[in-house]
Design a protein that fits this description.
Rossmann fold; 7-stranded parallel sheet; 9 helices; binds NADP nicotinamide-adenine-dinucleotide phosphate
């Protein structure tokens, strides 16, 4: 039976591949991203040959409450039974090079927004006999790598959210799935990440491979999947004995240090650090 899907991050490399695969099998899809031009153009392209109204574009920011409310409105009108939380922003570099605003934006986009969107859409999904939330995570959500501390924290969080929610909702109509791609050839990875991946021998997949795995999971496949053989093995081992593996990432540290383009934030000196002041308590007789 065909599904009615909300797909975030639809204009990205993996999002486009998932959108194409869903439309090809007859699903109705609401494509979500921030860029109105891009998502509108994509909806027109993918809508050609599809039944009228099968593809809709929605330009919103998922980190904003009004953006998520707009998604809920459209999903309610279209009786959506599937949410694919795929949108994310990348983060790479030594922790000292990542400023506060960047760290907050990554956690807001990659972790907080999918949780809030899932919660907001649950009443719509629960109207169906069978509904699905598919969260797109990452290998780095179960295997911490040098240079990906903040991104990894967001994806570890998304995996934990998926696992707990899957168990919380397991006696109801909503299935919760977690798909963890390994490196994938999209614009998400800039030249610095590509260089790091080359230096560390990290293999990558085409986005179509991720889309095929996503569709197989929506069709009743496993609730969690890590793509790529060495990666799937590494995440299992890491889950069992994480500190045993700590010595295995020298090449990754070298590759991270070789990246001279990372901006390094100035370290505050003692002279510029404000001295804590004590506010005297008022005494009441
Ligand atoms: N590429 C990889 O190597 C790789 C590996 C493992 C996992 N993943 C995961 O796979 C998913 C898709 O990645 P990708 O490679 O396709 O990335 P991508 O090509 O950079 O696409 C990211 C998408 O998210 C959208 N987006 C970002 N922030 C948003 C916001 N605040 N509100 C709404 N939409 C937003 C972007 O559109 P706008 O900018 O127009 O909003 C774009 O459509 C992500 O969850 C990523 O973490 C990727």
């Amino acid at each position: 039976m065909s599904a009615s899907v909300v797909l975030t991050g639809a204009t990205g490399g993996i999002g486009r591949a998932i959108a194409r695969a869903l439309i090809a099998r007859g699903d109705r899809v609401v494509l979500v991203s921030r860029s109105a031009d891009e998502v509108g153009l994509l909806a027109r392209q993918l809508g050609q040959g599809a039944p009228p109204g099968a593809v809709e574009a929605l330009a919103v920011d998922i980190t904003r409450a009004e953006g998520r409310a707009a998604i809920v409105r459209v999903a309610t009108e279209r009786r959506c039974d599937t949410l694919v939380n795929n949108a994310a922003i990348p983060s790479f570099g030594p922790i000292e090079a990542l400023d506060d605003a960047h760290v907050e934006a990554v956690i807001a986009t990659d972790l907080v927004a999918p949780m809030l969107l899932t919660r907001a859409l649950l009443p719509v999904l629960r109207l169906h006999r069978r509904a699905t939330v598919l969260n797109v995570g990452s290998t780095l959500g179960r295997l911490g790598l040098p240079g990906f501390s903040v991104y990894g924290a967001a994806k570890f969080g998304l995996r934990g959210f998926s696992e707990a929610l899957r168990r919380e909702l397991s006696d109801g109509p909503v299935r919760v799935l977690h798909l963890a791609p390994r490196a994938t050839r999209t614009a998400f990875n800039d030249a610095r990440v590509d260089a790091y991946n080359r230096a560390t021998g990290t293999r990558s997949d085409p986005p179509e491979r991720v889309a095929a795995a996503a569709v197989a999971m929506l069709d009743g496949g496993p609730a969690e999947r890590f793509l790529g053989f060495p990666e799937a093995l590494a995440v299992r081992l890491n889950g069992l004995v994480p500190t045993w593996l700590d010595g295995a990432f020298g090449t990754h540290r070298t590759a991270l240090r070789a990246d001279r383009t990372a901006p390094v934030l100035p370290t505050p000196t003692l002279a510029t650090t404000p001295t804590p002041t004590t506010i005297p308590l008022e005494t009441h007789e």
